[in-house]
């Protein structure tokens, strides 16, 4: 790698323009490029000894012919790991989606000296908007350019102390660009939080503690919000007893101010105590007595916070909607995805090795624990709900860290009772921190691999029933991300339907306890980092089935 320092930015350039030949004895990681049989290939994730090909599940993607024109129009395309960052935070700029017979890639950051290379990592030491320009040149010396803006904000510490008299404009001067007034006014307590209302067909579930009740309990001044949020003069004091302390806590832990500002409409209603979870349908009214957990993440993950929280796109601008709903749109725009739910016998999936060996499916590295694992501090619980033929595996998680995390793009996998692909479309996401059950609901990318005996991990070979490996990725749309968020000390959960009378299969308390313990112990939660869609995990386990709610 070449490291270059230029005024106001430091740049690391990677990705050789003439990659080496693929070598079966070499270990490659995601982003590495090689030449093989006349084509340039790029590794999707960690791989060793697997020959590049276009077969489904292969760890390589074909980029273009070696040294030859692609036959495509010359076009410069910039992909960014983030469009809003904090001071000294890295942004990866990737030109690999550019098309044409490209000879050189040249990057310019603001008006500084250019840097060449397919991929560039940039960090900034000043706040404000910074312009990134990519120029690609073909072998005939024709050029094409693209331009994007990186917004750099202050670091998590912010400037000045927050007080009850601090206004949202003083706290976050760009509050209008992030639609803070719209987020407040679109979901005012008492106007959009009816306990029996719903969105997305969740009419059977009620909210136990409504937003209107919380606003009264926490002394939120609703008139002040209506009168002062649009011009930015709304003070933290008007937001009641909760928002200021949460904002101080999140800021002290490094959460970006733009994220805190967009969470304020929920932070003013966020309790200190843990709320009881709500489930779909009868929930715990029809459930096994046997439950598992709480099981803390056995890999003891360090504090986790996401810096690249998306814009909420309340005005529905096309580019902002693509950013907000990027996971949701991926399946709609990528032909690899399907909705046939027949994914039950893919024994080549890396998910099987993951469950057998407690290793990460994309990197092959140990997950670092021997029970439930995650890449953020949390606890896992497992329950079974249902009666007759309507049963759900329930995975209930609690955020045990002092900061929130958004759940878009999160991948959850576990070992559970086989469903044989029958009712994978039935399920739910639950979170008390939203005005009504349906707001913030996701679509899901979901697979099930029904295991032969030889694929069952040895620790669970004694369970006398067919088992399956499951994986789910959450994909939200059309909803503020403050409803897609796991808050400190609070629960969120997913339910996946199992079309079997499970009590008949597991007819003793001992058998039932064994099953829920297995679900909790084998679960893993992989939160998305840097708005990367968790693509490496999705590709490694071929998580290409989309389920609509």
Average of pLDDT = 85
Low-confidence stretches: 1-16, 194-201
N→C terminal distance: 45 Å
Classify the helix fraction into a percent range.
10-25%
Main sheet record: 6 strands, mixed
Describe this entry's structure for a reader:
The chain is an alpha+beta fold and 549 residues long. Helix content is 17%, strand content 28%. It is built from 12 helices and 28 strands.
What is the structure about, briefly put?
The protein has helices at residues 168-171, 180-186, 211-217, 222-228, 243-252, 257-267, 318-324, 326-333, 350-357, 502-505, 509-522, 535-541; strands at 2-6, 9-14, 27-28, 33-36, 39-43, 47-48, 60-65, 79-80, 84-86, 91-94, 102-109, 115-116, 119-124, 128-138, 143-153, 292-296, 373-374, 378-387, 390-399, 405-406, 411-417, 427-431, 442-450, 467-476, 485-486, 491-498, 524-526, 546-547. By secondary structure, the protein is α+β, with helices and mostly antiparallel strands. The chain folds into four domains: 27-65, Seminal Fluid Protein  PDC-109 (Domain B) (Ribbon), CATH 2.10.10; 79-153, Immunoglobulins (Immunoglobulin-like, Sandwich), CATH 2.60.40; 168-268, no CATH class; 292-300 and 318-547, no CATH class.
Annotate the secondary structure layout:
Layout: E1 2-6, E2 9-14, E3 27-28, E4 33-36, E5 39-43, E6 47-48, E7 60-65, E8 79-80, E9 84-86, E10 91-94, E11 102-109, E12 115-116, E13 119-124, E14 128-138, E15 143-153, H1 168-171, H2 180-186, H3 211-217, H4 222-228, H5 243-252, H6 257-267, E16 292-296, H7 318-324, H8 326-333, H9 350-357, E17 373-374, E18 378-387, E19 390-399, E20 405-406, E21 411-417, E22 427-431, E23 442-450, E24 467-476, E25 485-486, E26 491-498, H10 502-505, H11 509-522, E27 524-526, H12 535-541, E28 546-547
Parallel strand pairs: 9-15, 17-27
Antiparallel strand pairs: 1-2, 2-13, 3-6, 4-5, 5-7, 8-10, 10-13, 11-12, 11-14, 14-15, 16-18, 18-19, 19-26, 20-25, 21-24, 21-27, 22-26, 23-24, 23-28
Helix pairs in contact: 5-6
